């Protein structure tokens, strides 16, 4: 499965702690992240992550491009709802794309934990069917 990690500045420590706690679940998956978040995760785990640009520089949009093509299976995006973000339109576009494509998205630690426990149980097998039978792709 393709999993992306994004965290606003004041949520990066929380993301690192979360991914560290579930490192064994994330092993064996294709992992993606915005720049600084991915760097921090790799410094604290043995996970290999494909890093895009930082969020404000276009990383959210790069992940969004994969979402638009239905090439992402799960996103954990720890948002800071109490801090204005300079790239808010990019964030909203990513959230909208996840809704359009039906991509599971955890925007807080409680939802992220539920999603990761489901991932660990194998509850995302339906995503394989999505990739096999993409709407709009002729065979």
UniProtKB/TrEMBL annotation:
HAMAP family: Methylglyoxal_synth
Protein name as it appears in the record: Methylglyoxal synthase
Tree of life domain: Bacteria
Domain spans labelled MGS-like: 1-139
BP-aspect Gene Ontology terms: methylglyoxal biosynthetic process
Coiled-coil annotated residue ranges, if any: none
GO molecular function: methylglyoxal synthase activity
Pfam families documented for this protein: MGS (PF02142)
Protein family according to the UniProt entry: Belongs to the methylglyoxal synthase family.
Active site (catalytic residues): 60 (proton donor/acceptor)
Annotated catalysed reactions: dihydroxyacetone phosphate = methylglyoxal + phosphate
PANTHER family, A to Z: METHYLGLYOXAL SYNTHASE
CDD domains per the UniProt record, alphabetical: MGS
The enzyme's E.C. designation: 4.2.3.3
Residue numbers binding substrate: 8, 12, 34-37, 54-55, 87
Lineage: Bacteria, Bacillati, Bacillota, Bacilli, Bacillales
């Amino acid at each position: 499965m393709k999993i992306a990690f994004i965290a606003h500045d004041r949520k990066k420590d929380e993301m690192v702690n979360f991914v560290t706690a579930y490192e064994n679940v994330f092993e064996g998956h294709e992992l993606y992240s915005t720049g600084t978040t991915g760097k921090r995760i790799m410094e604290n785990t043995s996970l290999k992550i494909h890093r895009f640009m930082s969020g404000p520089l276009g990383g959210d949009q790069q992940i969004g491009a994969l979402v638009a093509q239905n090439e992402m299976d799960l996103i954990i995006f720890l948002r800071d709802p109490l801090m204005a973000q300079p790239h808010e339109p990019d964030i909203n576009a990513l959230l909208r794309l996840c809704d359009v494509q039906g991509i599971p998205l955890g925007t807080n630690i409680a939802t992220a934990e539920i999603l990761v426990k489901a991932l660990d149980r194998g509850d995302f097998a339906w995503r394989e069917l999505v990739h096999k039978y993409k709407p709009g792709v002729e065979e």
